[in-house]
Amino acid sequence: MSPVFPTVREVLALDPVRRGAPRLVAGEAALDRPVRWVHVAEVPDIATLLGGGELVLTTGIGLPADDAGLRAFIGDLAQVGVSGLVVELGRRYPSEVPRVMAAAAERRGLPLVELRRATPFVRITEAVHALIVDAQLHELRATEEIHQRFTDLSVEGAGAAEVVRQAAELAGCPVVLENLSRQVLGYDPAGESAELLLDGWEQHSRRIRPTGRTAYDADSGWLVTTVGARGQDWGRLLLRWPAGGDLGAGRPVGSPPTRLTILVERAASTLALGRLIRRDAEGLERQLHRTLLTALLDHSRPVDEIALRARALGVTLDRRHLVGIMVRHRRDRTPGHPVPGEGGPAADGSGPPPATGSWPAPATPADPPAGPARLRDLAEAVGQALRETKLSGLTSPVDDQAVGVLLALPDATAEERALTAFAAALRRRHPDQPVPPGGGGVIIAAGSGVGSLREVRRSLVEARQLAEAARRDRRDLPIFRLPHVGLAGLLHLLRDEPRLQTFVERELGALLTHDAHHPREQLLGTLRAYLEQGRNKSAGAAAAHLSRPAFYERLARIGRILAVDLDSVETCLSLHVALLALDAIRTP
């Protein structure tokens, strides 16, 4: 996409200007300034009437006769931000502009051009203004295409990878989607080297600090917007402009075109909307179960309405002891080559791309079916286990990996007995349970029981987080409960929570940014050694392989960077939790 306004260089190449035999006298380095408008002026104080970005045309007949006046005239034009000055020779200056004018223009970086043949200024203004109007019309059409493209993507429920790809295609620039911890969720290099784009991404991203929700960081050349919805931000979308990362060499150095700002914001809103959308092809009853479970998780419907609709389905939730359960496979994908149409690309190459490092891998005989088919089998096994144990509740897949269950029990005393019976029935129904030595199998996680439908979201969310954290646990437990998960596990199951990522950034962000700018120091390792040795400075210095004076000096610097007292137990506890959370966020 070309910029909206032509540059001085492009104006000089127009036929009406070339007929005037233009000669550049000064300011060659600024020839790529955009020309917002063309203004004809014959008075020395014209700068007060300009707004910046104009190309000024003059015959010079009204310009000052003294050197100081010419310097002031050039200085005023440069200060107001004009794009350049074009002087027609013949009327005031027979053969060339005064040397003092050329010197002043060169010193102020203002392009100064002589027209050595008489040229009707109206021809120049008409040509430039037509170019500007055509470019603005092109910009309008491009903006309409952006709106239409992302509207279609929203309607189609396109995934993040497709949205990022389309954004890069429309912009012709590399695009990166990251979470709040600066981890890359998706990218498209737009034909450039992906390795160069992503090398050291976290450190590079921490140097990109625009102001505002959508802003351009001129130092790094990245246009950035925040991604989120309903007041919950969960990532950033970054577009590198100009493409190629070169902020000079004949490319515009100002702000990106307006259409790129519109593009990145529309792409971000499409990503945020896509995260809210859930699409599935299930039977009507299962859809109703899923609708109610999702409503409980999202607080999208009044609980009284949910209880009424559940009762119409034959599930009584009023005055019951309610327990949230999540059942999921320990592996997200089957190791081995995916089956077309079952969680991987189709035979024709369509469908979602593989997650790096997930597959293909050597297939094993114990591998269960992949993708949606495996989730449907699991959902059916869960439903059969509920029927076999004569338990009442809602059950349905709640996402692409987990089947949710809301058990409705007569009272709290029946909880352990019901959960044990359900787990045993599911084990009989589903051969992946218990955990085999290779770490596969099905995980059953149960949240804390609650006595009110208004509290049930806590139980369901707790179960979902426990199931996610249990994937890292190799123990053969029939049911995972909250006491089975320590602090590290708790932080792992919360690692995708924006509030935890915000906590990490608040506690450690300044230090991580410092390390990004000083990669040889890595003060985070010093802080880790100090905290892991129980705030024992001598032991910490030994663990960090530093002399005690050097270790103490580093600790003092860390304290200044974070603005904290590292002798405070409470402060160190908070920092240690943030370090554990950072490890959980960075661990797949």
UniProtKB/TrEMBL annotation:
Domain PucR C-terminal helix-turn-helix, first and last residues per copy: 523-581
Domain Purine catabolism PurC-like positions: 10-132
Compositionally biased spans, kind Low complexity: 347-361
Highest rank taxon of the organism: Bacteria
Name assigned to this protein: Transcriptional regulator, CdaR family
Organism: Micromonospora rifamycinica
Family of this protein: Belongs to the CdaR family.
Pro residues composition-biased segments: 362-371
Ranges where the record places region Disordered: 329-373
